[in-house]
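Lab meeting minutes (informal)
Scribe: AK
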Amino acid sequence: MSSSAESTAARAGIVAHLRAVAVAIALVVTSLLLGIVLTLAVFVPLVALGIPLAESPSVVLLAALIPSQLAFATVGILATVTLLDGVPVRVPTRHDLQWVGLGLLGSFGAVSLLVVASTFVDLSPLQSVVGDAAEANPGLLVALALLSIVVIAPAEELLFRGAVQGRLRATFGPVGAIGLASALFASLHVFNFVGGGVLVLVPLATLFLVGAVLGTVYERTDNLVAPIAVHALYNATLFLSTLVTG
C-alpha cells in the first residue's frame, strides 16, 4: 500500500472513531434533553396546582427520576432499532447467570474500593441527592429499590450498554466500547452529588468501574438481560442495605 493510500486510510479511521464518539455523546445528550422536557411536563402541572414540592424532596426526586428514565429507554430503543437493528435479549442461560453472579461480585468489589478510598480521603463535604432525600423519608429507599428493578436498570442498560456500547463496539471493539460507554455512564451520575468539588471524582471512579463490569457482562453473554439483572440487584441491594443500616 502506498504512503498516500495509508494516509487516506488513517484519516478515514480517525474520522470513523470521532463519528462513533460523537454519536455516543449525542445519544446521551439527547436522552438528557428529552428527560428535561418530560420532567417539566410533570413539574409544571404540579406547581400550577400549588403542590408544595419544596416540602417533599422524595416526591421531587421520584417525579424527576421516572421521566428521565423514560427518556433513556425511549432514546435507547430508537437508537438500537435505527443504528444497530436491535439488541440481543433472551431468557438467561446457565452461562448468563454465572456472569450475573460474577458481575455482582465485581460491582460490590468496586464499592469496596470506594469504602477504602473514604478511609484516606474525607468525603464528608460530598452530599448525595438520594441520601439527603432518604434522610427525610427512608421509605424512598424501598421505592428506589423497586424502581431499580422495573425501571432504572432496564432503561439505563438499554441506553448505555445496548445503544451506546453497541454503537461504539463497531468502531472501537469490545474493550474500547466498554471503556468509553462506562465513562459516559459515570459522567451522567455527576448530577447525583452536590458539593465536594473534585471529591466527586471518587464516586464517579467507582461508577466507572461498575459500568465496566456491566459492559463486560454484556460482552460475555451477548444478552442485555444479564447486565440488567446485575444492575437491578446491585442497586436494590445498596438501597435496602442503606435502609437497614441507616
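Next up, CB showed the second protein from the same session:
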Amino acid sequence: MNDVFINYRTGDGEKTAALIDHELSRRFGRDRIFRASKSISPGDAYPDALLTGLRRSSVVLVVIGPDWTNFQARLRDPEDWVRKEIVEAFTCEIPVVPVLDGRKTDRLNRSELPDKLARLADLQSIPFDGHDTETGLKRLGDLVADVAGLRDLDRDATSSPALGSVANSTGDVNGTAVQSRDFTGDVGGTVIKGSNGPVHTGKGNIYQNSRHVSGGRHFAGNGMTYFEGDHHGDIRHQFGESDRREGDDG
C-alpha cells in the first residue's frame, strides 16, 4: 500500500519532489511513497497507475513552487494531471498538504485558482526552504508519521539496542551492584579489578608501612592484616585464630 502520494509539476518543483521522495522512502520504506516518475514502471498505463496510487494513499503532498500559479492554462484544463490528482484527492477526502517550495513561494490565493482547486488556499501549508533542507525534510517526515500513521524506521533504529550492546538487567539496587558480560561458569567470592593499593577482604584491622605485631616476630595475631612497602594491586589474606604461627616458640 502506498501511504504518501507526491503531487508535483514538471518544471516547477520536480527536484524538491524527488528530494522529498528520497528522504521519506528512507524513513518509511520505498514502497510506501508514490512519485510518478519512480513508481510507474515503463509499459504501465500511467492514468490507471496514478489514480490507483492516489486512492490508496493516506496523505497527498502537493509541491508548489514559485511559478506554480503561473500555469493557469493547465490548472484550468480538466485533463491536466496535476489538477486531476488534487481534485481526485478532494473527492476521495484524502488529506492534502500544500508544500511551499522555496523562500519566494507565498501561500496560495483563492483568486488565482480555478474553482475546483480553490480549496487549496484554505489548507494549512508547510514551508520548505531549499537552504535548510534538513529541517524541512524532518518536519515533513514527522507530519507524515502523524497523519499517515506509518512505521518510522528512524524511531525503530533509535529504540532498538545495537548488536553486542549491554543493557541493565538488575533494576533498582540499594547498595552496590556490578554487572559485566561474557562470563562463563559461576562467579563467587570477592571480585576486584584495577586495584592501586592494598585491599582488605577479611575482618580486623589493616596496617600499612608500620609494624603492629602482637605475640610474634612477623605476621601472627588475631584478626590482623599486615602490609609493608609498596603493594600496588596486591591482595593479602587475613590470618585467623587457626593459622600457623611463625617465630612464636612459646
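CB comment: Confidence is low (pLDDT under 50) at residues 212-221, 235-250.
No objections, moving on.
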